[in-house]
């Protein structure tokens, strides 16, 4: 049963001013009657948030940074759009009765609003991969408990979702996650040591937010996606392969026990996977460029180089350790990427900091949200101390936590 063209589906976009958020707004603006907006949220881009809220006639606009609430109110005065601010207000926005919530906040900050949508059994279009990486078992358990449907927006997982036989999971032999290889695919280690944030965020194929662009350059993004795929599709890490495919035409593949390999192809435009989630289980037209295979002529593939890109093995290790190890890896990576973008550490330090944090901060079971927060906090403090070793106080607190756990 598809979503017929005249059936409407109300939408909340968490992170509407970001790269995925703007692509979502772009699609919805083409069919506003079909997708009425319940709420939009953003962290600090108050002018764009207000503009989107007015043009899409949103019921509510929420700004994360509370200091910007007066400006949001002023910009929306007389528009009839309700306003709110702060972390709790973003969670409340996710809790409002939209049929579908687009989870497009970046980082672990997206976890609680995403969980709020999951816990009321909504359709959840999930771009925010970090929420699955830092709390995969919790998110998947709550989704099953409350009847939420998670629709993957990450292009690889959206591709897998389209070709995965959910009725016969035993017929699946493995998942093949494709990766563009990022901007430094062909650099050697000494060249990689010198790269700047500007070079790292200039992705050869995709135009994305700063954090995921750096993750694509270290291949940590593919590692996070490996964890994401394992939770989304209940497939063990040993059955997920990573394949470098610089043209990013094949967005991922599923290999079956009979030897068949099913793939989803398309031009690299996030509006295609976003549309799959918005219109699911139907389809909608998008302005994404049509695929012209004759013009592309050649698709190439390589195995990843684990020596230059250690992030892939680190994520496999975290997934094998289980519990809060992926939470720790994710938090350390967020801290390290932020430090790299702010010029405080070099490019190769990112995975070094993740590796050291993962090996030194003890992991434990991941039951409730409190355990996620504890592991996330301990990892952030440890990673920050590695970046700025003069702060002895942080080391002491991390060690104390470690002892208390035993
Ligand atoms: P972005 O940085 O462009 O946008 C992030 C959005 O989240 C913005 O609207 C921002 O206001 C909001 N935000 C940032 N910090 C916040 C906080 N602490 N609390 C509340 N809101 C906050 O990021 P993006 O590239 O759009 O990526 C969003 C998510 O989608 C990430 O998890 C990313 O990995 C995933 N993703 C992105 C792409 C892409 O093409 N950009 C592709 C696949 C997956
Ligand atoms: Mg992806």
Q: What does this entry show, briefly?
A:
With 406 residues, the chain is an alpha/beta fold.
Describe the secondary structure blueprint for this structure.
Elements: E1 11-14, H1 19-30, E2 37-42, H2 46-55, E3 60-63, H3 69-76, E4 82-85, H4 87-95, E5 100-103, H5 111-119, E6 123-126, H6 129-146, E7 149-152, H7 155-163, E8 172-179, H8 189-193, H9 197-200, H10 210-218, H11 220-233, E9 240-244, E10 250-256, E11 261-265, H12 271-279, H13 293-296, H14 311-321, H15 325-341, H16 347-360, H17 369-387, H18 392-405
Parallel strand pairs: 1-2, 1-5, 2-3, 3-4, 5-6, 6-7, 8-9
Antiparallel strand pairs: 8-10, 10-11
Helix pairs in contact: 2-3, 4-5, 5-6, 6-11, 6-15, 10-15, 11-14, 14-15, 15-16, 15-17, 16-17, 17-18
Magnesium ion binds next to α7.
Structure notes:
- Helices cover about 50% and strands about 15% of the residues.
- It has 18 helices and 11 strands.
- The strands form 2 sheets. A 7-stranded parallel beta sheet has the order 4-3-2-1-5-6-7, sandwiched between helices.
- The protein starts with 10 loop residues before the first strand and ends with a helix.
- About 45% of the residues are buried.
- Residues about 395-405 have low confidence and may be disordered.
- It has helices at about 20-30, 45-55, 70-75, 85-95, 110-120, 130-145, 155-165, 190-195, 195-200, 210-220, 220-235, 270-280, 295, 310-320, 325-340, 345-360, 370-385, 390-405, and strands at about 10-15, 35-40, 60-65, 80-85, 100-105, 125, 150, 170-180, 240-245, 250-255, 260-265.
- The chain has about 400 residues and is α/β, with parallel strands linked by helices.
- Helix 6 runs parallel beside helix 11 and helix 10 (about 210-220) packs across helix 15.
- The structure holds nicotinamide-adenine-dinucleotide and magnesium ion.
- Nicotinamide-adenine-dinucleotide binds near residues 64, 90, 106, 128 and 209.
- Magnesium ion binds near residues 155, 156 and 225.
